[in-house]
């Protein structure tokens, strides 16, 4: 899709981070917006900034993991805009907890947002995307979709599933002129980790991870720009950040050794704690 002018984009998780920045960059190119989030305050601020750029921007408060609520959301979007050309399944959540300390409720939450939210978006907006002359779906996976990261069992699992879903959709939907891009960000300067920091089972480790991420994080403006360029080019997938590219390559070159190195590092850290 070369032009965004006079198109309509649906963006979940539009209240901040990559979602907000995608919204504003699209607005600057004349794209109308359907902005979805669970936080009315945050998504209203995104709407305010987008409207200042001269486009139509509707807001929708929705739990993307709720199928019935999602279908009502789709009806609202069509009623407000009449069409959909772009779907950004961006809403996501992460919890830094070991598998042992991950409750079933934790799993349910992460699966609902990260996986079911994407499935619902693709499923319920599909008839409207097919009705458009040209359409594109962007699914936010992660570099965690390349590798099972420690203390990120639910996040890595859902992001790997989003990657596989995107690959399937890319082959099935090409005949309808619907592009599909799987996005794999590394460290990005957003509040996703900070927002759930108090729910980590190891606060010291979680804060250290946050500090590391914030030091190396790519500006959200660059991440959003890279995603939109991928849509322009109808890219099958896009890795965002040197860390994402490196992790992907390491997983390809040395899939077993990479895991052994992580196991060794984790085991060494636990011995050090036990001896202190």
TrEMBL record:
<dbReference type="InterPro" id="IPR057326">
    <property type="entry name" value="KR_dom"/>
</dbReference>
<dbReference type="InterPro" id="IPR002347">
    <property type="entry name" value="SDR_fam"/>
</dbReference>
<feature type="domain" description="Ketoreductase">
    <location>
        <begin position="7"/>
        <end position="181"/>
    </location>
</feature>
<comment type="similarity">
    <text>Belongs to the short-chain dehydrogenases/reductases (SDR) family.</text>
</comment>
<keyword id="KW-0560">Oxidoreductase</keyword>
<dbReference type="Pfam" id="PF00106">
    <property type="entry name" value="adh_short"/>
</dbReference>
<dbReference type="InterPro" id="IPR020904">
    <property type="entry name" value="Sc_DH/Rdtase_CS"/>
</dbReference>
<protein>
    <submittedName>
        <fullName>SDR family NAD(P)-dependent oxidoreductase</fullName>
    </submittedName>
</protein>
<dbReference type="InterPro" id="IPR036291">
    <property type="entry name" value="NAD(P)-bd_dom_sf"/>
</dbReference>
